[in-house]
Amino acid sequence: MAIGTPLTKFLLEEQRRYPESTGNFTSLFSDLVLAAKIISREVNRAGLIDILGSTGSQNVQGEEVQKLDELANEMLIKTMEHGGHLSGMASEEMEEIVKVDGRFPRGSYLLLFDPLDGSSNIDVNISVGTIFSILKCPSAETTTKDFLQPGTRQVCAGYILYGSSTMLVYTTGHGVHGFTLDPSVGEFLLSHEDIRIPDKGKTYSINEGNSKHWFPATSMYIEKLKASEKGCSARYVGSLVADFHRNLLKGGIFLYPADKKSKNGKLRLLYEANPLSFIVEQAGGKSSTGDKRILEIVPEELHQRTPLIIGSKADVEEAESFWKYQEA
Ligand code: P6P
């Protein structure tokens, strides 16, 4: 479709491809887009109003909760709970799931999200993002167990990147499409249709400050990149969505691997690794723990962590080839 096509029109065209569709998903997605616009406004105003800094409380991850984290979380819950499309939600900021029952009509989808990933960058004006994943709810009663589905079961995944512009990137299994928010009209407009990640990149993203904890496989792979003839650039923002998005468009590899300090890595499976893995595979890339496809992991806990090696297919496969040295 033409560059500049409004997201609402794009979604309707997508929906029309499936005569049996009820429009529920399109309506759910439109609610999500509204929440994204509101969060974008607050993130962009953060420097002007008193919502910077920390609330002094900690979230389930034991991380300082930034005020914007809380606001983004509340914004998503309040915008999504009454639409009648969800049976439940799960958030990085909340230990337990939120069931949609009683007060509002119960729908058939589950929404999982990291409301504001990269929050430690908020006060220093570095890009942050919202990551989301949508599943079908398998049971009549919403329980935590319903959320513990492998990433291959996602019906939609995406992120909103609050950067120099606000972009929404998503997939429903039919390619990856990017939209840029035009604040003057308040609409997301098609800017990147059918994104394909280059098969090989020249950029690697990893926190080298952790190198003393790395297993040999990671150290050997990074050393190999540094020694490569063609050269390789290190780019690490410390904001997963920003690092991922750059590598998706330009090619490259992001690694938050298991190490001696964090046996399961740092990043969360259900609302960080799975949605980005769905996107990267739809764009022709690859995503693994180092030896296992992320999307095939059967979750055991809502907030479980996973090692994440994600990006250009040839780069990820090269990193995986070092895996045999992992425990050496
Ligand atoms: P580290 C931000 O807190 C985050 O969850 C991701 O956005 C980011 O990629 C990662 O953690 C950074 O972690 O340990 O390198 O600071």
CATH fold name of the largest domain: Fructose-1,6-Bisphosphatase, Chain A, domain 1
In the predicted model, the low-confidence regions spanning at least 5 consecutive residues are none
| Strand ordering within the main sheet | 4-3-5-6-7-8-9-10
From the alpha carbons, calculate the radius of gyration and give it in angstroms: 19 Å
What does this structure look like?
A hairpin with a 4-residue loop joins strand 9 (176-182) and strand 10. 29% of the residues lie in helices and 23% in strands. Helix 2 runs antiparallel to helix 3. It contains eight helices and 15 strands. It starts with 6 loop residues before the first helix and ends in a 7-residue tail after the last helix. The structure holds 6-O-phosphono-alpha-D-fructofuranose. 6-O-phosphono-alpha-D-fructofuranose is lined by residues 117-118, 120, 207, 238-240, 266.
Quick structural summary:
With 328 residues, the protein is an alpha+beta fold. Helix content is 29%, strand content 23%.
Question: What are the salient characteristics of this protein?
Answer:
D-Maltodextrin-Binding Protein, domain 2; 328 residues; 2 domains; 8 helices; Fructose-1,6-Bisphosphatase, Chain A, domain 1; binds 6-O-phosphono-alpha-D-fructofuranose; 8-stranded mixed β-sheet; globular; 29% helix; alpha+beta
Topology, pairings included?
Layout: H1 7-16, H2 24-45, E1 54-58, E2 64-66, H3 67-80, E3 86-91, E4 98-99, E5 109-117, E6 128-136, H4 144-147, E7 156-162, E8 166-171, E9 176-182, E10 187-192, E11 203-205, H5 216-227, E12 233-234, H6 240-250, E13 253-256, H7 269-282, E14 286-288, E15 308-311, H8 313-321
Parallel strand pairs: 3-5, 11-12, 11-13
Antiparallel strand pairs: 1-2, 3-4, 5-6, 6-7, 7-8, 8-9, 9-10, 13-15, 14-15
Helix pairs in contact: 2-3
Bound molecules: 6-O-phosphono-alpha-D-fructofuranose.
The site of 6-O-phosphono-alpha-D-fructofuranose has 8 residues, from loops.
